[in-house]
Every structure is written in C-alpha cells, then in structure tokens.
Amino acid sequence: MKNACKVVTTYFGPRRKWPLDYNETLDMFNVMIEMEKNIDKGTDCDTIIVNHLLEENNYRVIELLDSLNGTKTKNGTIITMNRPWDNGEGYGFKSRDYVWKKYQDEYDYWFFTEDDENWFKEGYVGMCIDVLERDETCAFVGTQHGIAKDCIREGPPQKYIWPHCHSGQGCTHRRFLKELVQFYGNIPYSNSKEYNDAEEIGEVESTSIFLKMGYKLRRLDDDVQDTQYCKEQYRDYGFCKWRIEEKKRLENFYYNTVYHDKESKNFIWYCDDLWSVTTSPYRSPKAISESIKDIITDKVVCELGCAEGDNMVFMSKYAKKVVGLEYSGRINPAIERGLDVMRGDYYELDFDDFPKADVYYFWPNNVDEDNKYLCDKIYSNENFKGYIIVAGDTGWPPEPPAVRECAKLWDGTIKEVEYNEGTGHRQSGTFVLAIIEKK
After folding, report:
1. CB 206 within 8 A of CB 96
2. What is d(CA 25, CA 142) in angstroms, rounded to the nearest whole number?
3. In CATH, what is the architecture of 2-237?
4. Which H or E run includes 183?
5. Quick one: 413 exposed, middle or buried, by C-beta within 10 A (0-12, 13-18, 19+)?
6. 78-96 in b/e burial notation, b at 16+ Cβ within 10 A?
7. Spatial contact of 271 and 254, defined as CB atoms under 8 Å apart
8. Whole-number pLDDT of residue 279
9. Superfamily of domain 276-438
10. How many angstroms separate the CA atoms of 46 and 2, rounded?
11. What residue ranges of the chain have pLDDT lower than 70?
C-alpha cells in the first residue's frame, strides 16, 4: 500500500464565483498543475485529480486530463479521472466519494482539497501526517484558516451548523474514512444541485461527522494548534444562543418535576432533544423508544453499540434501567454523561460477560453479519429469557431485509416505526424492528 494521496476535485463548467467559465478555470488549473509538480509535499504522495464532467462537450477537458495522467511530481505521480455528470449533483464532495470507492485500499493517508481552494506549503502533507500519528483521537487535520465554529444559519428554517474544517480541506487516515463509511454509508455529499445543500451536507458534514463519531479536528498552520473541538467540549459551548435560556428553563422544570431522582445524577439527560449529542441518522430515532415502551417499561435494557448514549437516554424514560456496550471512541461522551456503559466488543466478549438485561436492543453498522450473530449469541444462551429487538432503517436499503430475516429465523414479529426529526439526510422515514421473545 502507498503512503499518501492528495485528491483534487475540479470542474470546468460555470461556478458561483471565480473561475466563472472554462477559460478562467483552465488558467487557474495550469498554474495549479505546475505547483503540484514542484512543491515538496513532505512524503511520498500521488496527486489524484478527479473532474466532474459537464452535461455535454467534454472532449477538451478529457483530452487535457488524459495528457496529464502519469505526469511525475516531486513526490509521486499525477493520476486523472472523470466522474459522470450525474445531473450536476454532489459537487466536488461526491467526487471525493467517487475517488475513495476506487482507491480506498491503495493509500493510507488522504489529503482532500478543491482546485480553487488548493493549499500548498513545503512539506504540508507530511506535517499533517505527523499530527495524526501523534494524536489518535484526531481524525482530520484542517489546513485552511482554522476550524469553523458552530453557528446558527438564519432561515427559514434556522439551522444549526456544526464545527468543521473550511472547504473540507485537509488530511485524514484511511481507517477513519472506513469507519466514516460504515457509520454514514459514504463520504458525505448532497444529492441536490442547490449550493447550500452541497455546502451543508458536503463541506460541513464531511469533517463535522468525525466529531459526531467521537473524534476531534485539529488545524495546521505555522504552529500546529489543537482546536479542542472534541464532542465533550462541544457540549460545553455548543448550545446556540437562542436556546440557552430554554435549556435552563427545561433543566429546572425536569429536575423539579417529572424525572427527578435523588439517587441519580443523570436527570438532565432525560430531557428532550436539547440534550441529544447526535441526531438521526447517527443514533436511533426517539420514536423507537416510544414505540417499544410497552416492552421495556420496568425492565433492564441493554443497547449493544450504544455510541454516545442518546438512545439510552430516550429509553430511560420508560425502562427500569438502561445499560450500554460500545467498543469505539464514541463511548466517551456517554461516560462523561455518567451513563451506565461498558467498553467492549460484542464479538470478543462471551454473552455471560455482556451487561445483564431483560431486553437487548441493537442497530449495528454491519447488518449482514452482526444481526444474525447477535441474535444467535443471545437467543442460544440457556440462561437468557426476555426480548431481542433488532433495528433497521429503510433509508439504508440493506437493513430492512436483514431485520426481517432475523424475525423469520427466530420466530419474531415485525414492527414499523415512522419518525420525523428534521429535513436532513435520513432524518425522517421508517424504521423496521424485529421483536423476538424468548420465553
């Protein structure tokens, strides 16, 4: 496997700002190529130029890129490729996903940038790699004027924008990208042709998603500075200004009335979505716990793959007790919240070492393997009596058939749950649950 690649997305059609047409893009592109060839990146590094084709008349662009393919640089080789027009959707961020799918097993380190936002500094890729190697909690090193702080984008509707690396520019390791794809389904991009959608789902989500996965972002400048935008600190400052007073009001209300328990320090996490660390589709929708409340009421529930613990919080409203098991760094916010969680891998642990529960709930990433493995591991244990609940999102096509197969194999029932938590990617739709009872 090669050490590193730099992915440069380009497009020779009209844009919202300079360069505005083919000729201006060509002028910029030619300068960029000379710098790509002559700037020392600080490590062995190929440059992959992926072009988003026009709707028609691509012959000049294809000819240009073909002439550059195989050109030697100071640190590697220029590789060129063309992504189909795809109705103009996805912008450069879909091009990133396009490159990743082809070359994901050929490079360890990945540096992403755009042709009009390209970044050159002697040794810059090597510097990014040094940061990633020194800090295993950092998943992405941004290289363009720091990290964008969270904010509210005025509407209608108003939208909360997570901290992220400007332009999604910077460097990461393939292990983080593989985990991202397992978590999200692909490198984030918008299927819309609208610029704002492309910016929010592409530019913002492509790096803010690492925060939601439990990692942090760092920036690279003359002095490498840690942004400290990990999820634990996000919670300290991340409530947007127009919600702070509402947070205080609700905290006081919930503490003094509905959920106050003198023996519990976790009352704040029983509140509504103001206290969620993540949103759909990065956790189970709140509607799930409401739909299974008749099963989990007054029972001990264990979520296998609990991540940050949001779904544990939702189920806590009904269950006698909720515990969680999680192997990845996403467990850290759950620990900080004081939730009852255990760090471990359900493939490595014996069932007898799982947290003890009457109900086991899971919505894993690898449905083809994990669903049947977990159902068999739990159901076959002679000491277990209770419920197994397997979840799947119809927004991700492989999941519903895998859930239905579990219901068939273990004589369970199917329940469909509609949810609506926003207008974003997979924030509304239908979940399918396999409810399996072992008596």
Report:
1. yes
2. 25
3. Alpha-Beta Complex (3.90)
4. helix 174-184
5. exposed
6. bbbebbeeeeebbbbbbbb
7. yes
8. 78
9. Vaccinia Virus protein VP39 (3.40.50.150)
10. 9
11. 1, 16-17, 145-146, 148-160, 195, 221-277, 337
Amino acid (1-letter code) at residue 39: I
pLDDT per residue as tens digits for the range 84-100:
998 888 889 999 999 99
- Pick the closest to residue 209 from 233, 182, 191 (CA basis): 182
Q: Give the DSSP per-residue string, 333-381.
A: HHHHTT--EEE--TTTS-GGGSPP-SEEEE--S-HHHHHHHHHHHHHT-
Read off the pTM: 0.53
Single-letter residue type at 110: W
Closest CA to 201 of 192, 189, 217: 189
Q: Does the CA dihedral 169-173-177-183 come out positive or negative?
A: negative
Residue 239's pLDDT is: 26
**What pLDDT does 256 receive?**
33
Widest Cα–Cα separation across the chain? 72
The order of strands in the sheet holding 45-52 is 78-83, 45-52, 2-10, 107-114, 170-173, 138-142, 216-219, 225-226
Residue 360, C-beta contacts closer than 8 angstroms, at least 6 positions apart? 301, 302, 304, 354, 374, 378, 386, 387, 388, 389
Supply the pLDDT for residue 149. 65
CA 297 to the chain's CA centroid: 31
Give residue limits of the domains in the chain: 2-237, 276-438
User: CB within 8 A of 400, min separation 6: which ones?
Assistant: 392, 393, 394, 432
Q: Can you give the pLDDT at residue 251?
A: 38
Terminal Cα-to-Cα distance of the chain (whole angstroms): 51
pLDDT tens digits for range 107-151: 999 999 998 877 777 888 999 999 899 888 889 998 876 676 656
Which helix (H) or strand (E) is 131 found in, with range?
A: helix 124-134
* Run of H or E including 59: helix 59-68
Q: Assign 433 to helix, strand or coil.
A: strand
Closest CA to 286 of 302, 301, 273, 299: 273
